[in-house]
Amino acid sequence: MSERIVIAGCRGRMGAMLMERLGGSEAFSPVGLDLPYEPEAMKEACKGARVVLLCIPATAIPATLEKLLPFMEPSAILSDITSVKELPMRHMESLWNGPVVGTHPLFGPVPAQDLELRVTIVPGSRASEEDVAFVESLFHSFSCVTFRATAEEHDMAEAKIQGMNFITSAAYFAMTAEDPALLPYITPSFLRRMNSTEKQLMEDGPLFTWLFEANPHSQAMVRQYRNLLSLAAAGDVDLILRKAQWWWKDGAGKEKLHEEARKVALQSARAGLKKGKTS
Questions:
Q1: Burial of 237 (0-12, 13-18, 19+ CB in 10 A)
Q2: DSSP state letters, 229-246
Q3: Distance of alpha carbon 45 from alpha carbon 30, whole angstroms
Q4: What is the SS3 assignment for 16?
């Protein structure tokens, strides 16, 4: 028999993607829920569900759980896919007495073809090895690669990878804004950076702002970055450059990373071309 998996937020982009991917496995029967979360729909969906997976903004977790909890099986695993983990894990474990297993798929709803789909798995304090392995199996069913971490480890890493990427881009374009005298000097590299950052700052700006502010390690990463900028202000650019070049030094892991980066860049270029044809 297939295991019932409730996807709360099934009409969102990630929720819809997971509904489709999990629906392609004989092992699972995904059932979707979304606003306004009618009691009868929740009761029917949660009946016998092995996992309730929250594909919703982290800010919506407490209010959504208040509606869902009365209908969940006592042994059901509560999970989520949010990009910050310490705060959502605290919310989920404080509100649900059963097992909690947090996740963070490190890819979007339409990942580049042949890209390695990595997922962070964050076991809660009451989750058994069986619970954690079951949540991992959801992602393994569509060829994801999972790895385990604590909520703190995850958020420290994401403060650097996701948070600093967002805030440094926002700061850079804020610094260059409102200066028409710059327009004749715009270079292709500036335009490439502008194009790659547009969606993050224009469409997803409020989301990334919340993630930056909700991550307890964001301010510490900004201080680290400020220290490097201080080196640049003092004229020690060579030192910064040598540290940055670590990413391009020989290593099988980094070669694989560069190949994945090329796939993402190609997908972005195709999306930009498609957007240009339809605009």
A1: exposed
A2: HHHHHTT-HHHHHHHHGG
A3: 9
A4: helix
Helices and strands of the chain, counted as H and E runs:
12, 7
The two tokens of residue 106 are: 């490190």
- On whether the CB atoms of residues 86 and 152 are closer than 8 A, the answer is yes
- Cα angle 16, 82, 147; round to 5: 100
Beta carbons within 10 angstroms of residue 181's beta carbon: 6
Structure tokens at 20: 């489709």
If pLDDT is split at 50, 70 and 90, which confidence band does 267 have?
Answer: low
Confidence of residue 218 (pLDDT cuts 50, 70, 90): very high
Nearest CA to 127 out of 138, 119, 140, 136 is that of 136
**The pair of three-digit structure tokens given for residue 153, joined into one six-digit string:** 């480890």
Rounded CA-CA distance 45/34 in Å is: 11
Distance of alpha carbon 37 from alpha carbon 165, whole angstroms? 35
> Residues near 145 by Cβ (< 8 Å), separated by ≥ 6?
116, 117, 118, 119
Give the DSSP H/E element, type plus range, for residue 4: strand 3-8
Q: In whole angstroms, give the CA distance from residue 139 to residue 150.
A: 18
